[in-house]
From TrEMBL:
Single GO term (MF): kinase activity
Source species, domain of life: Bacteria
Record's keyword terms, sorted: Kinase, Transferase
InterPro entries found in the cross-reference section: ATPase_NBD, Carb_kinase_FGGY, FGGY_C, FGGY_Carb_Kinase, FGGY_N
Protein name per the record: Xylulokinase
Carbohydrate kinase FGGY N-terminal domain segment(s): 4-233
Keyword hit for Phosphoprotein: no
Family: Belongs to the FGGY kinase family.
Domain Carbohydrate kinase FGGY C-terminal: 244-425
PANTHER family assigned: SUGAR KINASE, XYLULOSE KINASE
Length: 477
């Protein structure tokens, strides 16, 4: 008996098959692009998602696919797919890095239980209603990415609390905020009913089964957002358990038995298990490093790592990674990035090293916000495709001042989705998940480094200075 996890990410779709004990036995992935037809837009045609799913599935062993008895979903959060009544996507999906709606946040009156960012479904749908009224008129469902994919495969039009609570249209509990939706002038009928993440969300259709090489009729779990799925797949369960994930963006997740009090710049969301978590969410991790690698002309990540960590850290060069604005802790969609302090003797290795440090310092800003609100973290689990290189892991440990334990699970979010699929199929119960936690190994212990502390202090000072400068630039634009 096997269970399939589908993780619909920002830049790629990942699959993992786990066995009866929750051990991953096969995986594959397929990439696609985030497009930007206009400045500040971030979109992906949904056909690219489905094509990636079919492609990735074709590279899983046929005998393992034949044994799949449950499917679960993990998906990038916040974005939205406007669809017709049959689930047909009326336009490309609008994604979380999108900032086109940055001038429409005034409708969310302070104080809010969670920060509101332009790339969340609420602001994006408000933009859609005013800028694409014909599409809005045809819309029956405003779906989260993973919910669209599940419906495409034959599932029900439902969502879960972990995804709904991150739309800026729901209460922290995940229940739709009908008063807010009405005040925004959005149709209440757009928003799918709630189901538990592990609840059966429909059965795989014959057409989808044929395309994927699976058996028709397999139960599909409703699924959850990628961050709560990564927490589930990594084994977070107890109050205070913490996880750092580094991918396109970065998240620091701390599990909470009860709903924590709202804090500006931090998020309080529902977990895939129905518990809670506090999160610092940083947009500019892999997305910033990938941009820098391209700008500096590195043919591979290995070359970029080797050059960066062979270079001595510069006492004068800083890199602000805020290429697409920033969420935690600044909540500043106008933030921008770049190098400061460059001299004629600096090399691209110096610049790449500064980029790694800048991303680490941006993560530190989010972690410090969590610490300042009563959670003294000195150890965390570490997951995500952007945290494999041991030199990068060590820099993260040093900059964050935490002990990092790498989860023995290469695809945490995908594994979490597969576990949800196993529950939907009746193989496990929610109470079994703690016993299925993967092992972890010590990845890096923080080392005292006074010069790194000085560079971190300079980084925070530079951000504070440019924060005002970019705000002035926006007002005069």
């Amino acid at each position: 008996m096997r269970f399939l996890g589908i993780d619909l990410g920002t830049g790629s779709l990942k699959l993992a098959i786990v066995d009866e004990s929750g051990r991953e036995i096969a995986s594959s992935s397929a990439a696609y692009s985030v497009t930007s037809a206009q400045p500040r837009w971030a979109e992906t045609p949904v056909d690219a998602w489905y094509a990636a799913l079919v492609d990735a599935a074709s590279r899983l062993p046929a005998n393992e696919r034949a044994a799949v008895r449950g499917i679960g979903f993990s998906g990038q959060m916040h974005g939205v797919v406007p669809t017709a009544a049959d689930g047909y996507a009326l336009r490309a999906a609008m994604l979380w890095p999108d900032t086109r709606a940055r001038d429409l946040l005034d409708a969310w009156r302070e104080p809010q239980p969670n920060p509101v960012a332009p790339g969340m479904a609420g602001p994006l749908l408000r933009w859609l209603a005013s800028h694409e009224p014909q599409t809005a008129a045809q819309t029956r469902w405003a779906l989260q990415p993973k919910d669209w994919l599940r419906a495409k495969l034959g599932g029900a039009f439902v969502t879960d609390a972990s995804d709904a609570c991150a739309t800026a249209l729901a209460k922290p509990s995940g229940e739709w905020d009908e008063a807010l939706i009405d005040r925004l002038g959005l149709p209440r009928a757009w928003f799918a009913p709630l189901a538990a993440s592990h609840e059966n969300g429909g059965a795989l259709s014959s057409a989808a089964a044929s395309a994927l090489g699976l058996a028709a009729g397999i139960p599909m779990a409703t699924g959850a957002g990628d961050t709560p799925c990564a927490a589930l797949g990594s084994g977070l369960s107890a109050d205070g358990d913490a996880l750092l994930t580094t991918g396109t963006g970065g998240q620091i997740v701390v599990m909470c038995a009860d709903a924590p009090a709202p804090v500006h710049g931090l998020h309080t969301y529902r977990a895939a298990t129905g518990a809670w978590y506090r999160m610092a969410a940083m947009q500019n991790v892999g997305v910033a490093l990938e941009a820098v690698r391209g700008w500096l002309g590195y043919a591979s990540w290995r070359d970029a790592y080797d050059d960066a960590f062979a270079a001595n850290a510069s006492a004068s060069v800083s890199f602000l990674p805020y290429l697409s604005g920033e969420r935690s802790p600044w909540m500043n969609p106008n933030a921008r990035g770049g190098w400061l302090g460059l001299g004629l003797d600096d090399t691209r290795g110096t610049m790449m090293r500064a980029a790694f440090e800048g991303v680490a310092f941006a993560l530190r800003a989010g972690l410090d916000a969590i610490r300042a609100n009563g959670t003294p973290l000195d150890a965390m689990l570490l997951a995500g495709g952007g945290s494999v290189d041991p030199r990068w892991r060590q820099l993260l440990a040093d900059a964050l001042r935490v002990e990092l334990h790498a989860v023995d699970c290469p695809n945490a979010a995908t594994r979490g989705a597969a576990l949800l699929g196993g529950i939907a199929a009746g193989h496990w119960r929610i109470g079994d998940l703690a016993s299925l936690a993967p092992t972890s190994t010590l990845a890096a212990t923080p080392r005292p480094d006074a010069s790194l502390d000085e560079r971190h202090a300079r980084f925070i000072d530079l951000y504070r200075r440019t924060e005002d400068w970019f705000a002035i630039g926006r007002e005069s634009a």
